Amino acid sequence: MIDTSVYRDLTYGLFILSANDGEKDTGCIINTVCQAASDPQIITIAVNKANYTHDVIVKTGIFNVSILAEDAPFGLFQHFGFQSGRDVNKYENCTMSRTSANGCRYHFVHTCGFISGKVIGTTDLGSHTLFIAEVTEAGKTGSGAPITYAYYHANTKPKPKKEEQKKKGFICNICGYIYEGDELPPDFICPICKHPASDFSPLE
Length: 204
Ligand SMILES: Cc1cc2nc3c(=O)[nH]c(=O)nc-3n(C[C@H](O)[C@H](O)[C@H](O)COP(=O)(O)O)c2cc1C
What we know:
Elements lengths: L14 E6 L4 E6 L2 E6 L2 E8 L3 H9 L1 E7 L5 H8 L15 E3 L5 E3 L3 E14 L3 E13 L8 H8 L5 H5 L2 E4 L5 E3 L19 E3 L2
Antiparallel strand pairs: 1-2, 1-5, 3-4, 4-9, 5-8, 6-7, 8-9, 10-11, 10-12
């Protein structure tokens, strides 16, 4: 038996993953950055294949991750996490980021630091690709506390409204999307943030 609710107890940070498709900057929210080795300096990121940022990194092999701080507003998560760079230019008029030596954007507001990665290997994980990357640059951008997934759920993400709580259905723990119905199909994917059925909880 695999009780996927246990996954909710895994501790994560939250990050903006940025890349450049050759014409424009783009990026998305991820929670899957991990320092994997220290000599050489290696990080890993797991990115959903449905994400535009995924396709750009497959093409270029270059990215930045900005480590989000607790003061990051919900709007920042909506902007980078609830819409796709296929449909919008996420960095148009963005004054909270600048370009690092690798040509990708990093955020210097609402962040603690950034890390530049150059992909040296990939593993196909089905829904996601695991990118293994050498660190080419890293720097501090702020002194605030890094945001955790638990902090995001408790403080950043708006609570469901009273009338939504009365509905029968399931709520996406990531973005708050509500699926109405008695049963959530096991292969359901959130249309907003692309997270799977295991990231939904029943409305109480
Ligand atoms: C809190 C939060 C955490 C997320 N974590 C991940 C993640 O670890 N990996 C991933 O591929 N997508 C993750 N997403 C979903 C993407 O950010 C989202 O699907 C985004 O709209 C993709 O944008 P793109 O198509 O421009 O790349 C997360 C979203 C949120 C709001």
